[in-house]
Amino acid sequence: MTEDPFxxxxxxxxxxxxxxxxxxxxxxxxTHFGADHAVTLLVDYRxxxxxxVGADTGPDAGPDAGPDAGGDAEPVPLDATFxxxxxxxxxxxxxxxxxxxxCRLHLPLTVHGERxxxxxxxxxxxxxxxxxxxxxxxATMVARALKVADGHxxxxxxxRRRVRMTLAAEIQWDLLxxxxxxxxxxxxxxxxxxxxxxxxxxxxxxxxxEHLTVTVTNGTGRGIEAALLTQLTVSxxxxxxxxxxxxxxxxxxxxxxxxxxxxxxxxxxxxxxRFELGTGRVTAVDAGSPLVYRLRGTTVEPVTLDAQLPLxxxxxxxxxxxxxxxxxxxxxxxxxxxxxxxxxxxGEVYGASALPRALRQxxxxxxxxxxxxxxxxxxxxHENTELADDAVIVCLDWTGKSGQTAARPAGD
Length: 412
What we know:
- The chain is of the alpha+beta class.
- It is built from eleven helices and 17 strands.
- Residues 183-398 form the PPM-type phosphatase domain.
């Protein structure tokens, strides 16, 4: 190992073309860290597999080798694999090879809480814990470079899709801010389902120094019409939010814009939440069908909000802001009507008892894994038949600021 490999690592990774980041990372790991080879695996859209990119990662791989180079490696299931454990736990996992004579280190690739995938590094000798911090630092650099590169090439998105994606789903995925995010005060994750054919359901969030804003939107209709409606809704909400508007004004502006375009024929059921990071106070505008459930300890209960008209129905609706409070340790789960109104083949509504039961079962999982579990439970509830409606699940764990002492209403 060289005395200062990190300068070489940074130069190699950031000089690589967008599609060549995995190969550049692998080459630097073989040259400066003694690895036999390394491979970057990205999580697929359904969050079921880790898909290898830049498979040709030996010391002879060129600096611009693309993610399809090599092409022989198979996707790795997230469940019951070493790679999947690294992704799920967000910890470095050691996989012994050749009875411990060699090893693979599986390193999470994560940026600001967004889980991108796993960097798997094959080392010629047994694991040495003292080497892990350096390799974890390399994984952090690789994750950040991949996040930037993803906006300049299609190759990573091609790799992450395992079947053909509809145009409506393409629009919805491109709208997302990410699939997970975390800060000192919270951890947050969301998922769309069915991943490759979602229509009008979407979620959005934005974080600044004092607030987190989260929205869940369900555009009416199906296919491309629903996707375009949701795209217009999310863009209108973002435009208002980025102009400094509060929740009420965000809803009012989106309502006006949707009505001007569709004259009430198409509406977007939307839930808007704004979290005060310093206090745990949550303000809300409930403009439609998405619901909020709170898990406090082992108790699951809906957060009761006064339902208001969906965005776009009349164009002059006056929305009202409501509030509730969170305590450290609380979990919020936001679901679209494709979740809480889903019916089993026998006609039982999912939100009646199965959803609260599933929420309690996830209380020991972090939000990203909880969302995966809830999606699996939803599909199982349908007995693995096709969903009748697309669905959004967003999970937020609230830790709050250290020493948070702001007053809150009794009993909340």
